[in-house]
Amino acid sequence: MSEHSIRLRPVVEEDLTMFRRFATEPGLVGLDWTGFKDPQEPARRYATDSYLGAESGRLMVEVGEQVAAGFVSWALRDFGGPTKHWEIGIVLLPEWRGHGIGWRAQAMLCDYLFTHTPLQRIQAGTHPENIAEQRSLVKAGFQLEGVVRACEFRDGRWCDGYLYSRLRSDPSPL
């Protein structure tokens, strides 16, 4: 995928069409499909803060000549105490998966968050069967911390997840 440059950029109104697709097209997000969502919610969120809130946000993953391939997201989390951390995620359109875009976009998001916020920890979860995302997270500088048992209700059953983290002190793979 080296023939295409990758960059992160803020969400613009035209991107809401993609967000509505992810909310209403079963299977478009792969294993993360959890049922239909309100297709107008993306417009309401965009009107509130353009997806650049203090506690959560999204940036578009753009490849080549301004083609939106998907988005990365982050949300503020805690383990019940005063210390906070970021949890990140990524969604790419199917035609952009498997081209080395995901790990670079996630690494870029981590670098962005470590540069512009004081938090020490970024974590990401994935499904045990999502081998491609596991490899992507490792390439993006994350380390596997372990299995989170029965953490997600998906497809009619409780499923385990894998938890990965990257700390501010970990080197950036970029």
Structural class: alpha+beta
The best one-word shape is globular
As an assembly, this protein is single chain
How many domain modules?
1
* Largest sheet geometry: 7 strands, mixed
Mean pLDDT across the residues is 95
Number of helices: 4
Strand order, main sheet: write it out: 1-2-3-4-5-7-6
Query: Would you tell me which CATH topology applies?
Result: Aminopeptidase
By CATH, the architecture is named 3-Layer(aba) Sandwich
> Helicity level, as a percent range?
10-25%
- What pattern of helices and strands is seen along the backbone? EHHEEEHEHEE
Q: Any idea of the CATH class?
A: Alpha Beta
Rg computed from alpha carbons, rounded to a whole number of angstroms:
16 Å
The proportion of strand residues reads 35-45%
Low-confidence stretches: none
CATH homologous group name: Gcn5-related N-acetyltransferase (GNAT)
Distance separating the two termini: 15 Å
**Count of individual beta strands:** 7
Structure report:
The protein has 174 residues and is an alpha+beta fold. It has one domain (6-167): Aminopeptidase (3-Layer(aba) Sandwich). Helices cover 25% and strands 36% of the residues. It contains 4 helices and 7 strands, in the order βααβββαβαββ. Strands 1-2-3-4-5-7-6 form a 7-stranded mixed beta sheet, covered by helices on one side. It is globular, with a radius of gyration of 16 Å. It starts with 5 loop residues before the first strand and ends in a 7-residue tail after the last strand. 24% of the residues are buried. The model has no long low-confidence stretch (mean pLDDT 95).
